[in-house]
Amino acid sequence: TTDHTTTTTNPTTKPTTTKPTTTKPVVKPISVGNISNLKVSKIASNYITVKWNKSKNATNYKVEYRKVGSNQKWYYVNTVKSNTANVTKLSENTLYYIKVTPMIVKDKKNYYGKNATVKSSTATSKVTGLKVTDNGKKISIKWNRNKNVTGYKVYRASGDSNGKYVYYKTIKKNSTTTFTDNKVSTGKIYYYKLKAYRTYNNYGTVVSNYSNAVMSTCGLYATTVKTKSELSKITVTWSKVPAATGYKVYQS
């Protein structure tokens, strides 16, 4: 009889099980872009209009402003879809920064690009109270003072210039509110308008709109009057005024 012995051998290492790997989708970063060519297109005493080149990917633009100076706070204006915006309710004669930031709204989240900032001043209010004070052999004008400006610019047109105003004189002090024009001809009509201006350091000069116009004929100076008394009448004579069309006689 032959004995048969069976030997069972346990493996020293367990077989490995390989799990399939899963690849996560690559999420591309959202590129909003940047603002280019931001500039001021119009100014007034209480608002500034800006415009810029549209960003390639942006869907909206965030507009903010603040006064020039330290510790000034940025104020939100509006979010617009176009490439222009009005910043309103500003103070006259004041320097501001205006900032525009491109943005994309996706999945209820805001993504922002690179902003741009431009500096601008609001305009000063126009000159008021302009009137003629002398129209004899010279013409003098005066107006109301504006303490917030640097000075004034005088513009003149004559009766034969088809109403075209040309720059004539700069008044460099805001406390000077009179101007006398000695370069006039007797019998000729002249028109005047003024602009106020303000000069800022490291920025430039901002000019107001035209004032209302005043008109005067040169040579309407007071004449010399003489009288001759007779029994039932008084004869009045005077020297001729070359620029006059006629004369008005008053009695008291």
Distance between the termini: 173 Å
- What is the β-strand count? 18
Query: Which structural class best describes the helix and strand composition?
Result: mainly beta
> How can the largest sheet be summarized?
5 strands, antiparallel
Q: SSE order in H/E notation?
A: EEEEEEEEEEEEEEEEEE
General form: rod-shaped
Low-confidence stretches: none
Total DSSP helices: 0
- Let me know the average pLDDT: 88
Rg, rounded, reads 40 Å
Please state roughly what percent of the residues sit in beta strands, choosing from under 5%, 5-15%, 15-25%, 25-35%, 35-45% or over 45%: 35-45%
Fraction in helix = under 10%
Layout of secondary structure:
Elements: E1 36-43, E2 48-53, E3 60-67, E4 75-80, E5 84-87, E6 95-106, E7 109-112, E8 116-121, E9 131-135, E10 139-142, E11 151-158, E12 166-171, E13 178-181, E14 189-200, E15 204-207, E16 214-217, E17 225-229, E18 234-238
Antiparallel strand pairs: 1-2, 2-5, 3-4, 3-6, 6-7, 6-8, 9-10, 10-13, 11-12, 11-14, 14-15, 14-16, 17-18
Concise synopsis of the structure shown:
The chain is mainly beta and 252 residues long.
Give your account of this protein's structure.
The chain is mostly beta strands and 252 residues long. It has strands at residues 36-43, 48-53, 60-67, 75-80, 84-87, 95-106, 109-112, 116-121, 131-135, 139-142, 151-158, 166-171, 178-181, 189-200, 204-207, 214-217, 225-229, 234-238. β3 and β4 form a beta hairpin. It is rod-shaped and about 160 Å long. The mean pLDDT is 88.
